[in-house]
Amino acid sequence: MNYENILAEAEGGIGIITINRPTKLNALNKATIEELHNAFKTFNEDTAVKVIIVTGSGEKAFVAGADIAEFANFSVEEGEKLAAKGQELLFDFVQNLATPVIAAVNGFALGGGLELAMAAHFRIASDNAKMGLPEVSLGVIPGYGGTQRLPQLVGKGRAMEMIMTAGMIGAEEAKAWGLVNHVVPQPELVEYCKGLAGKILKNSSVAIAKAIKAVNANYEDGVNGYEAEIKAFGESFGTEDFKEGTTAFLEKRKAAFPGK
């Protein structure tokens, strides 16, 4: 599929989505959000794609925020609709995707960019990455899940500080706070993510999808995460991947998971 604002390619079981608006530092607008939704959906439905990496073009920015010019004159109702639609199409969609998503954070990840990275299942940063939620400096608050996901990842106090000061933190500080898992030199970022994806590829995609669902259940209001885990654990016993995995273990060989 051809896109105007992103690039999407698949190789060796890995789908790579690159936000490609370099003149705007890859800022998110409504069209880009819709294209990202379509790309994630397409890869998720492709049984050959087992892991998705999302990154930004160039070395300066992952996503340097939302395209402010697009909503500067919005009304209250339009602003609420913008946040709701964006969360539905992209941010919640990515978080709950059955295919694991790795955010390769190259450079600035601000506002909606950090919110997209946080929606991914985990994050790897380049050593020049800068992260923050600067929305209050514009008289607004994060609207794509930032006020919810950031405290989950770094704790309430640190999240409050980041949001209230509208400041940025560097890659090493983000790692120390648990916002990113690893920090690597900029030129090595995507290859490092591919290496992690390769490790994921060896495992059962069916089990991974169930694990994502169980982990996410812990953060859903009114849902007992332990009960969700028990249910998903039991369901695993009815899959072909479970049969192959246990048989391969007993036969002392590597499993060849069918993904069913």
How many domains?
A: 2
Structural class, by secondary structure, is alpha/beta
* Rg, Cα atoms, Å: 19 Å
In the CATH hierarchy, what is the class of the largest domain? Alpha Beta
CATH architecture tag of the largest domain: Alpha-Beta Complex
Global shape: globular
Separation of the first and last Cα atoms: 26 Å
The proportion of residues in beta strands is 15-25%
Q: Tell me the CATH topology of the largest domain.
A: 2-enoyl-CoA Hydratase, Chain A, domain 1
CATH homologous group name of the largest domain? 2-enoyl-CoA Hydratase, Chain A, domain 1
The whole-number mean of residue pLDDT values reads: 96
Helix content: 40-55%
Give the strand line-up of the largest sheet: 1-2-3-5-7-10
As residue ranges, the low-confidence spans are: none
Describe the structure.
The chain has two domains: 6-201, Alpha-Beta Complex (2-enoyl-CoA Hydratase, Chain A, domain 1), CATH 3.90.226; 205-250. Helix content is 46%, strand content 17%. The protein is built from ten helices and ten strands. The strands form two sheets. A six-stranded mixed beta sheet has the order 1-2-3-5-7-10, with helices on both faces. A four-stranded mixed beta sheet has the order 4-6-8-9.
